[in-house]
Amino acid sequence: MIVEERTYTLHPGQVAAYLKLYETEGMAIQKRILGRMIGYYSTEIGPLNQIVHMWAYTDLNERTTKRAAMAADPGWQAYVQKLRPLLIAQESKVLTPAPFFTPLWQD
């Protein structure tokens, strides 16, 4: 298992607009295609105007396949066009679990 942590830095004052756009247009597509959402957050302390979301995958091959399917989805493409003006930067990290960790969805 791997977890992808994505951090989006937004223009100041755009967090509410981003979250509304994601909730109404992006979330259903992303959840349908990617599947296992671990969490979706906005920053309150530390670097501000950031959205952090995490997704679980079996491995890098699953991630690659699912993200390619999402990129090819016409609804996702339309959503991304609306999203881009809100963004300053994007960062993606792939995390691997410690040997003693059992994800909640596997209990």
From TrEMBL:
Domain (NIPSNAP) ranges: 3-100
Family matches, as Pfam families: NIPSNAP
Domain of life: Bacteria
Gene3D superfamilies associated with the record: 3.30.70.100
Family (UniProt): Belongs to the NipSnap family.
Name used for this protein in its record: NIPSNAP protein
Annotated source species: Humitalea rosea
Lineage per the UniProt record: Bacteria, Pseudomonadati, Pseudomonadota, Alphaproteobacteria, Acetobacterales
